[in-house]
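Model it.
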Amino acid sequence: MPTDDGERIEKAERTMRHFTVHHDGVRIPVSRGGGGRPLVLCPGLNSTQADLHELTGLLRRDHDVVTFDLRGHGLASPADRYSFDAFLSDLVAVLAELDLPSAPVLVGYSLGADLVVHYASECADTVAGLVLIDGANPMPEPFITDADLANFRAMAEDLAARQDVERVRGAACQVVLTAQDIHDLNLEIDVVRSGILDRYRKIDRPISMIMSASIAGDSTEGRAPRHNQLWRAGIERLVRERPHISTSWLDTDHRLVFTHAPEIAEIIRSAHHPAGRPSS
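Modeled.
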């Protein structure tokens, strides 16, 4: 590794800060480290800042990176409600507590992408740009139809069961949402995305999309082909209306943030490279 990269990583580790935001009866743990242009990374449903450690570490080479856990995730406390608006209020509360030297780049993964789009649509003057990772997709029709309900409920139950196992690994990776919480949120997110194009129309900041080519996997059978086609159709719809949005497709599924962290970090670096440092 080049010396300058090594020095930046070492500096990021030395400057790490951890604090807690108290909001809506919830304790939200926040971590901040690195140096350069501010960047706030918002995780998605069923992901924690501990899960995103590889991507966060890479981003801290060039950015002052803030990460946090949404309610019911990781080291955040449980809550009485797990709605889209409740998670959005967590993001708003964290951003309100930050004393940043300049407007941050907001990076959101999955549900986190939808959250930062909604935030930026109301507070665009406080944001330098958006990077949306496999979320905030204005699909032309519902992703979850009646024919998909049984499958999505089974997926939620499987996730909840695996999360019980994750708790053994430690609180940093745990998610306390029930299968019903997850299922309800998936349905709500579908509704949110049906109207998200209106949110994009209010944002005049640079937007980069990093999307999975096979969000539903690479199977040629069952519902996967429809979901993969619909996922691409939504982004094509967005770019037709907002042609200045840049889009990168990675040949993988929805776990891209865990399996392709170096590629994602490089795309972000190229889109928002630090002043005075050439992008790769």
